[in-house]
Amino acid sequence: MVLLPWHEIDTVLLDMDGTLLDLHYDNHFWMEHLPQRYAELHGVSRTMAEMELQPLFERNAGQLQWYCLDFWSTELKLPVRELKLETAHLIALRPDADTFLAAIQRAGKRVVMITNAHRDSLSLKLERIELAPYFERLISSHDYGFPKENRQFWDALQADLNFDPARSLFIDDTLPVLRSARDFGVAHLLAVSEPDSRKGPKDTGEFEALGDYRTLIEGL
Prior knowledge:
metal ion binding, phosphoglycolate phosphatase activity, Rossmann fold, hydrolase
């Protein structure tokens, strides 16, 4: 069980994909649906599609364009926004994430979403899962021009929100992002242990693992 010193936390910063929402939607789209539609629309085999996509994915991982639908639409010559709608039925909340959000909101914490998701992806998901009312702000890294992996994102966030990193909690499912937050000085960090409900638990490295949101509510 994760026991947080809630009396030392004023601001709660939350990722979206894999943290509040099941990462299965994104993993399925990028690893299964997109290669299949790429093959169909470009008239190549599924194997050839994967051979062409894999180097592009590896080259852009962790950079802002990795998360940008405009970039991928141009790069792949595909209507990526429209393709994402084809699997939108898979968008789902992680268990008890809404219970946690309601509890920290009632407790008077400042709650801010910080996501690398492109604004179009964010809008698509918020149309299906009612998350916006729980948050003071919904911030995409595209607003600042830097992904969360980059120190400049955190400098921009600090300038925008004027929050105290020493009195903040940040929850994410990506270790490079959590390390970037730690280097900036965010004091309380948790890594989601099972961001994709179909893939089972993953290694959370040096960070304490979060499995059940209900355990975080203790002591609020």
